[in-house]
Amino acid sequence: MKKQADGANAARNARRNFLRNSAVLTGGAFAGNALAQNAADNAPPNVPAWMKKEGRALSDGQYGLPSAFEKNVLRRGRGDQVMPGSGSAMTPLQNLRGMITPNGLVFERSHAGIPEIDPAQHRLMLHGMVKQPLVFTMEDLMRFPSVSRIHFLECSGNTSREWKSPFGKSVQVSHGLLSCCEWTGVALSTILEEAGVQPGAQWVLAEGADAAAMTRSVPMAKALEDAMLVYAQNGEALRPENGYPLRLFLPGFEGNMSIKWLRRLKVAAEPFMTREETSKYTDSLPDGTARLFTFSMDAKSVITYPAPDHKLARRGFYEISGLAWTGNGRIRRVDVSTDGGRNWREAALQEPVLSRAVTRFRLPWQWDGNATILQSRALDDSGYVQPNRAQLVAQRGLHSNYHYNAIQSWAVAASGEISNVHA
Amino acid sequence: MSTHKFIRAVSTVVLMCVPFVVHAQSKFAIGTPASEREIKGWDIDVSPNGAGLPAGGGSVAEGGKLYAAKCAACHGAKGEGKPADRLVGGQGTLKAAAPVKTIGSFWPYATTVFDYVYRAMPYSAPQSLSANETYALTAYLLHMNGILGAEATLDAASLAKIRMPNRDGFVGDGRPDTGNLPCRSECK
Questions:
Q1: With a CB-CB cutoff of 8 Å, which residues 117-136 of chain B face chain A?
Q2: What is the mean pLDDT of residues B19-23?
Q3: Fewest CB atoms within 10 Å of the CB: A99, A119, A145, A323?
Q4: Nearest to A152, CA basis, from A347, A304, A359, A309
Q5: What is the ipTM of this complex?
Q6: pLDDT tens across A45-93, in order?
Q7: Residues of B numbered 34-53 whose beta carbons fall under 8 angstroms of chain A's beta carbons: which are they?
Q8: Are A20 and A42 within one domain?
Q9: How many domains would you assign to chain A?
Q10: Domain of residue A334, residue span
C-alpha cells in the first residue's frame, strides 16, 4: 500500500516538475494554474509539500505582511479620482472578520494627498480663546495621560452612490468608507484644560498639516465629551494615510471632521464656516436648502457575507454575517430578513458591543436554492431604527449625497450570484 | 551681535519666560507657550465676520490674469470646471432635478472663498499666493458669478460686507427624520 502511494507521489512529482518547467517557459501567468492543478496533491492522504522541507527564515528585522495568498485583499477606490491625492480608497469589508480593521486596510479619504511628516518636526498649536496659547511636540503629547478606545470611523459620503440607483458591485465599493480601530491618544479635554478655555468659547477649529490645510469647526461640547488627539491605531503609530503622526478623532461623527495630520486647534465663540463645512459636507434637500453641521453618523448596517463579492456554490447552510454601527451610542439589535423584508429574525451580536464601534452580527441561514433578497436593519440604544431607502428619499430627495444609511438589499439569484438591488 | 539681533534675543527670552510662569500653574505643565510670532505664521483662518483677513487688497482685473495663469488649467477658462470643481454659475438650480453647486449658487460666505484659496490653492502649490493675490482672485471669482462688477476691488473691509446669494440657504441638522418601525413578521 505504501509502495503504491509512493509510486503515485513519484508520478505526481514528475508531473509537477514538468509543470514547473513549463511555467518557467511560458511565463508567470501559467504558474497559478500549475499550483491549482497540484492542489489535491497536498490533501489527504498525501503529506503536504510544505511539511517536507523547512519553512522560510523568521521575520527578524521585517514588518510582517499578509500571506501571498491574500494578495487580493486590498483597499480599492471607485476609480473616479479627479485630482491626484484627492479621493478615497475603501476597506474590503467582504474579506474582514470580527470588528477590527487592520491598519493596512483602513479606508482613506484625503483632500490633497498624503503628507510625509517627520514627527520630530511636527507641532500642534493650541490658541484662540485660551488663557495660555501652547505649542506641543509629539513627545509632549505622549507625556499626557493616555486613553485607548475602539470606535468606528465612517466617511459621511459612504454609500453615497446608492441614493439614485444600486451602484456598488461590491460591498467594498458600496460601504467600504467604514473602518473600526482601537485608537490611542490623549483626551482633547485634557489639552484644553491645560491651556485654559476662556468663557464663551463654543467651537474649536481643527486644521491639518496637509496640502489642503483641511479645516473643520468642532462644537466645544463634543471636544469636551469624547474627542481624542490620536497618535496610535491598533497598537502602532498611525499610518501616514490615516494622519501620522497626529489626528483628531471624534467618535461617531462624520469622518472628515476627525482632521488628519492635526497641526492647529483654535478655540472660538463662533464656527468658522470653512469650505468643507459649507460648500462640501452639507446635505442638500428637495426645497433647495441644505443641512449644515450634520455631524453624527446615524445607525446603519450591512451584510458583508454573503455580498456581491461572493457566490453561493450550493444550497444549504450559510452564516449570514455583517456589521452594524451607530454614532448615537450602542447597537441594541440587528434584524435580518432573508425574504426581501417580509419577515425578520434577530441576529446574534458578537460581544463586545461598544459605544460608537462596529458590532458584528450573525444569523444562521439555510439557503433553499431559490432567488431571494437579504437585508439587515440596525436599531440603536437611542431607539433609532435604520430606515429604508424610500423613507430617506421621502425626507431628503436624491441630492443629499451624504449620510445615506438605508437598509441595503442583496439579491441572491438561483445561480448563487449576488447583486446590489433596491428593494 | 548686531543691535537688531540683540533685541530679538532679549525679547525671545522675555517671551519664553513670562508666559511660562503662567503655564507653570497648569495641571501638567506640558507644552511650550506659543509666541505671537509663531501664532501669526500659522493663524491663517478667516471667519465670516472678516476676522483673520490680512492687510492688502486686489482687483477683479488683477484676479483675471492670476486666474488664467494659476487656476484655469483645472477649473476651466470661465470657471466651468473639469477636472476640478465648477466655480461659476448654477444660481437658481438648487431646487432643480440637477442642482449645480458653485461659489455663486451655493457658498454662503465670501470670506470662505478667501480662506480656502489662501490655504489650499493652487492645488499643486498651496500657501503660495500672497494676500494681495488672494484678494484679487476672490474678487475675480465673485465677478464671474455676477456678485462684483468688473471694476471692483476687494480688501478686508469690503470682503466681509459681501452678502452671497445663498446666504440664507442653510438649515439645521433636522435628524432624526425617518421614523422606521421595526416590523418583524408579514411586513409587506
A1: 119-120, 123, 126-127
A2: 48
A3: A145
A4: A359
A5: 0.89
A6: 999 999 999 999 999 999 999 999 999 999 999 887 888 889 999 999 9
A7: 34, 38-39, 42-49
A8: yes
A9: 3
A10: 300-421
